[in-house]
Amino acid sequence: MKVLFLTAALVLVSCSHKYPDPSSPLPENMEEAVTSNFRTPENEERDEYQHPKETLDFFGVKPTMTVVEISPRDGYFTEILAPYLAKQGQLYLAIPRMPPRPSQVLKENEKKLQDILLRNHEVQNHTKIIPFEPVDKRNRIPKDFADAVVTFNSVHNWVAKRSAQASFQFFYDVLKPGGTLGIVQHRIRAGKKRVPKSGYMYEKEVIFFATKAGFKLVDRSEINANPRDTADYPAGVWTLPPTYRLGDKDKDKYEDIGESDRMTLKFIKP
Fold first, then answer.
1. Which of 39, 159, 239, 269 could form a disulfide with 175 if both were Cys (CB 3.0 to 4.6 A apart)?
2. Residues 177 and 210: beta-carbon distance below 8 Å
């Protein structure tokens, strides 16, 4: 069984679109990682909402660390972390196994991650894949090996699959004592009614899962806040950019709102 693609599929592929410059030197610091020529223009355009440098600095990610990125999807943060850690650190991508009949989005995300790792030999050598199967008792993951675990806008998926608590236990298991868990998640403000399967969560829900697993909340930030986001859209958070699930309907309005309001939480494993 393959994880998503990479354990046996790092093969050269031809692509029609223009790549970033793979001959660029590896970044020396986080600022260079965010502004490097390893990144695609499509991802750079999202930086005003993702705040990658500020977010990763807030989590305390350093170039010598072993970092686990959970469910990297299209690789927005992978594109930054992989070159950043390629000199002195190590990046693990914890990826769910591909379902028997994957959606087009999953296939596209698989290809985007492939492309990121194929850009540079050192990036490949310092990026490894582990299965993200927190409810599978046969999943023999390494324990206590990571300095940091980071995940972006995925907690609602685990809630929908009823695997949220098991997921947070997975994070706790892979982290060294003193290691950091950094979470960004679409947020609905306290006091507002949350529609199930909207993609939004209350901060208190995420904090509950983490602390129940044994983590201690040490800081929170408004780096990724967006007060224009009312969190009450017909197609949930996917109404907003970059998805625009309603197509052209009211697109200008949603474009003006921008990407979702997000909580940014930092935990440690005692």
1. 269
2. no
